[in-house]
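hi!! sorry for the late reply, been swamped w classes. u asked for the two structures so here they r. pasted raw, havent cleaned anything up. first the sequence of the first protein and right below it the tokens
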Amino acid sequence: MAKQVVTRTYTASIRNQPRVSDDLDALGFAASKLWNVGRWTCSRIWDKIDHIPNHNELTAYLKTHERYDDLHSQSSQRVLQELAEAFNGWYGKRRNGDARANPPGYRKHGDEHPRSTVTFKQKGFKLDTQYNRVRLSQGSNLKEYWSDFILCKFQTRPDVDLSAVENVQQVKAVWSGDEWELHFVCKVEIEVSESPGEQTVGIDLGINNFAALAYEDGHSELYPLNCLKQDDYYFSKRLARCDDSNSERATRLNQKKSRRRTHYFHTLSKHIVQRCVEEDVGTIVVGDLSGIREDDEKGESKNWGSHGNLDLHSWAFDRFTELLTYKAEMEGIAVEEVSERDTSKSCSCCDRTRDANRVERGLYVCDECGTTANADVNGAENIRQKVSPSSPSLSVNRSNGWLAQPSTFLFDKETGALAPQEQVTS
């Protein structure tokens, strides 16, 4: 065992939610407004001098803007830093010849500003671990109408003790879709195992199969989205019967749905990491889904159909990858994120890229080399090869074999665990 300092994010519920929700709403709306002001400023500078301002330049431009003082100065800096990073990411893709890449958009839902995440750095919060309270500073503009700070009472998981954490670096107020929650970003020292081996596995996250895995030795696995789809359908029906979406009953249903989804993500990430240990995997390569909600050509939200949208927008992509990463770190396994561009269109055996090769949702047939594969597994193998290309002989042996006949694991509600499809009874 070796010791390693890593970053951990611990999620906490807010126990006095009704008392602080209006204040947090005001901060979330303010963060969106500042983002939009910064977005307009970046666009104007780009149009005039073909230059994308960096974080320091953008902060200097907007430090005197009235919206900047809606938040604590460090919180405003973080909003503009995220915007600058998003613009630089877009410009990097454009410079590399990706003509379909779009710049970051404005944060609006119709005429309304959504609740953006607000980040508080060390000068912007005061943590009281004895009574599980945290004071979040507000900007000077909001202090005129509200108090100087928001006092949130929080509850972490039983196994998380923030008083034992040496350094809490940031506190984030995050809108979960139903209510506000707190994310504590900490530096902690952990004991990690030696790497299980030098093998690699690629993971493709998708709509029908939540995860498809392609291992370096050629075999593959699927993890269908069965339980989350059933939960979406069940809770949507129950919530539709509620007279008020903000009622106590609706709140309990949303909280239960959220807990079940979180349990699934924990169970799946733990299972995948255990499988990697068994298969001597030292590196997990996962597709980066940061732009999956946006249409490359139109710059708008993609329309995946009524059922697709239901499934897609209930995901927590970052949450799952975060859980997978820290569980993998404990076992000495590295996690790398790579672009998913064209991984669903390219043949993992001969590299030919053609839209028509994906003849059905779950079937990929290459008209060049004759490879027949499960489409999601083919994508996972392409993702894996971005970090560890296969030898030609292995690619030949893989075609029409394990890629087309993956093992399937389902979530068994009776046991609360993942098991081979033939063993699941629920």
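now the second protein. again sequence first, tokens right under
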Amino acid sequence: MAVQEARQGGADPAAHEGGCTCGDCPHGAREGHRRAVAAFLVKRDEFATGQGLPAAVAHSASASRQWVSEELAQAAEAVAERGRAEGAAWLARLWQRTAVVVWAGVLVLLLVQALTAIGAGWTSARTAGLLAAVLVAGALTAASWFHRARGGALAPVVGEDNRLSTSRAVAGSWVLLVAFAVLVLVGRLAAASDHRERDALIDGLELARGAGVVTVLAVVCGVAVLVRRVVGLRVQGQRLQKVRAHRPRAADLLTDDSGRGSFADIQYVVINTVALAFAAVRLARRPDQLPDLPWGLAVVVLVSAGTYLAGKYAEGGRPVILSVVRAREAGDLDAPIRTGDDIEIRGTGFVPAGAQGADRLARMVVRVGPVNVHVPLVPVVGGFDNPADDLLTVPVPADVEPGRVDVQVVTAAGVETNRYTIDVTE
């Protein structure tokens, strides 16, 4: 079977040509993850249509459901292990790619300067800009090598949840632009021979010239620090659910943890990209001073930062149980909740953003009195019918004593809901 092949990891040396499934080979880690995912999807859809059930459990709906859930949970854990291996291999390769992109940017700058110098001539400002780009690229390459196991130059912008942080990426972009602009002025100052030219370059660093860009730099850096603090406090206070991703993705800059587009993130990235482009063009036109970002554009960036920060305060929320009722199938008589019965837990926030994978869903637990009940995975073609974000179905275990008992849900992020009291009869 494909699942057995994925679990065994493959031992054929010839498989390193592209079919390797071992975790220490970058290409093999990707192929192993792909095969594990494919095998899991096939198994899930087979179980959803009633295929593959052993005869020992086929006669009992509860037994078959439990067996299917256990099988899917084990297969999902194998997929998660492959995903983590693929993510680690991807991060290990990323530092080389970032280094190539950085030096390709330097080459593009050289070509642009060479083309624009035709007719106008080569100037000291062009030399200073090229040297500044080489210095920045060298620093980024060195940082990539030292952090090669964590994503290279992107390591500082990867959050604690293993996703690219929008606030850190924006702040890092402004830091690089300002550092490049200062290095250009340093290069021109070192090459200047006339004292009036040197005085003009020093005046270019005055706050009156670069007040807009300095203000924007301070705000975006402050937002990056504040967002990290806000998210950490909300997670610790169980007001925000965070699930770790297998690896960072470029889409993280524009989406929330579940992969849906986020307005707060998108507008923050778009407006800052436009402002960065304006500042870069302004620096190219006036390389004798810091980019003088107009106050109108600076205020637009500040409004965007405020919107992004407000969005971080507003996102998330604690999961809540609204009601618990006895699950009833067609033809069943109405009755009170007894041990062995299925109960439906209705509420909101049971499945955190980013926890839609089967390995995350299998970690959900419902406390019924003193007993912890793992939420069974109920497959349907293309997904799962249970658990859902607003509805969970679990059996009342036989170990629960009749009487008033508390029901509480523990999500995949480890966040606990409120307690809801039900009556269990004999």
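hope this helps!! also noticed smth abt the second:
The first strand starts at residue 320 and ends at 326.
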